[in-house]
Amino acid sequence: MTPLSRKRELILGRELAFANAVGAALFEKPKVSFWMVLLPILFVYFMYRMQGFRNGRKQFEEEFMITRRRAMDVAFKAAERGGKPDVDQMARESGLPEGLEERYVTWVRALVDHYMDLLSAEGDSFEGLVRSAYRNRTDYLLTLNQLNAVEREFYAALKPHLAQSTEGVADIISTIQDQSERLRRDLA
Q1: How many CB atoms sit inside 10 A of residue 147's CB?
Q2: What is the pLDDT of residues 119-165, one digit of tens each?
Q3: What is the Cα–Cα distance from 6 to 98, expressed in whole angstroms?
Q4: Which phi and psi angles does 97 have, rounded to 5°?
Q5: Cα Rg for the chain, rounded, in angstroms?
Q6: Using one digit for the tens of pLDDT, what is the confidence trace for 50-77?
Q7: Do the Cβ atoms of 3 and 157 come closer than 8 Å?
Q8: How far apart are alpha carbons 158 and 139 in whole angstroms?
Q9: What DSSP designation does 164 have?
Q10: Closest by Cα among 92, 55, 184 to 130
Q11: Global pTM?
């Protein structure tokens, strides 16, 4: 595995852990009850709910990672060839409605820039890459704040499109934003 590929895996691994943590806040894990001992049929129902919980979290993680993986692919290809990333091509292939494209491009560009910084840094761990790329906590916090801001703008533009087809979309997006900001702050 090349050093660049190793960095890519470290970054995507951290993003997957991030998606997992956000998903944990969105999905309520079923709790074991004392009554399950007395009424075994409740245990069957618990297992059914637990399977739904696992499937929901897995699907959320996969969908949460789609844009991040695509952004990483763009950044990785640019880093390999030493050129500039082609974010506009990614946006054209996204299939989003026209009103969302501009905010999507802004969000993806921020992600790609962040990934490019990390891919060009030196380090054997994600934390090492961050320290090398951003040099101090303030610079890293500025980048994370920028990511939070562009995500917030994209989600605000996305909300009306999802409101027609998804129940409780405002609460879902609010939870994703709150958890993302909290997790990034904790990471810094």
Answers
A1: 18
A2: 999 999 999 999 999 999 899 999 999 999 999 999 988 888 777 77
A3: 36
A4: -60, 155
A5: 19
A6: 788 888 889 989 999 999 999 999 999 9
A7: no
A8: 29
A9: T
A10: 184
A11: 0.85
